[in-house]
Write a structure and sequence with these properties.
This protein has about 500 residues and is mainly beta. Helices cover about 0% and strands about 25% of the residues. Strand 11 and strand 12 form a beta hairpin.
Length: about 500
Amino acid sequence: MAYVGPAPKLGQNREVDDISSGFNGSTTAFTLQVGGSNVSPGSANSIIVSVNNVIQNPNTDYTINGSTITFTSAPTNGQAFFAVVLNQGVDTSSPADGSVTTAKLGDDAVTAAKLANTSVTAGSYTTADLTVDAQGRITAASNGNISSAEIADNAVTTAKINADAVTSAKIADDSINSEHYVDGSIDTAHIADSQVTNAKLADNAVSTARIADGAVNANKLGSAVVTTAKIEDDAVTSAKLGAGAVDTTALGADAVTAAKIADDAVNSTHLDTNAVTTDSLGATVVTEAKIADSAVTNAKIAGGAVTNAKIADSTIIAGKIASNAIETAKIQDGAVTAAKLASGVGGKVLQVVSSVKTDTASNSTGSQSTWEFNDSSLRVQITGTSTSNKFLFIGQVTTGGEISTHIGLRDGETSSNVTGMMATGTGNTRASTSGHDQSDSHSASTVPIIGLISVPDTNQHTYYFQFSHTSGGTVTLYINRGSNSGDNAERGRYISSLQVMEIAG
């Protein structure tokens, strides 16, 4: 039998023509066709739609109006499209006469308007008076009950049945099949637990929204199915990495920053030769422990960098001192002892202390009293450097008076006279001088001072003159003049002095 257009496809699903060429990220509405002819699925539940291999949710991700499908979000360029119209039995608008059989009619498809008039008239039927219309439908009943025997087969239409009148007890076992279900009428509550098997799921029917959070475990994943594109940015944490999983090839250039290196993780084996430059060293990080023995050469020491504080005590030996490098200013006072002098240099003068008195002084003393003349103008203070050395005393003192004067050299630290100093005197501790001559001129006399003693110790000593007389009464003693202070040749003014030298032993 010949057909105009494609032959009818009865009881088949039909693949919709590809519309992905129109995907551009902004267009949402597209015309559905099968074999180049428009097709109307009827509703969103009558077509399965896949975009980029993901099944779309009817009435959420798309809607159907006639042959137009409208997406909620515009598909972008490059996304794949696939769709199947479900169970459209006849795709021609011109069935042949007599070709529509009972089996081809859907339940409730034939309405009263489609029925031709019959010869059934109103009248009485058994125990009840029934009123029927021209199509044989009961429009009224009275005078009794209507038994099943009085109801013609297929006479009770949907309109004659009250809402909720057909209970489960009125439905025969196995009598309800798929054609009696309204699209979307079977919800979760009507499906027994564990009844939706793999065979009941259409290909690509399980979308992301249908999978419970955490439902896909390791056992549900096939080998190598988790590709880079499936991993969310920052989703792979350290806990997800196996030991040794991140090797050199997995690290990008400059990927290992300072924050990623654990404290004390970088040791000498990880450093390339010459890798640590000056810029890499923080201030004060090169401690003594980090410098190898003998590593600091002369070239590494800046001029003037080695200060006194940097030199350990007793570390500069003779071999490190250049010839003639130690000047007088570099030698501490008293630092050169006799032991430090080479053989044959004994007798060298190590230090000299002197005093000179040019003015006069006088003092009235009682009977045989002493006068310790400790004036700064005629005394010396000296600290010996070694007891193996000698003190050499050289000087003179001029005195005058009305009676003989006794002169001695006094050590103020020990409160004793220094022996061996005077030219004459009892016990070699003092000299005597006459305070006047035969002419009673009251002239002055000069006594020389010279002597050599051992340095008593390395403490400071103060040396000065002590004067006394033997008179029974009070007399006046003078220094640098006679009792008569005239300036003539016989009674002139004088100078007194005292000098002490430390001589190397």
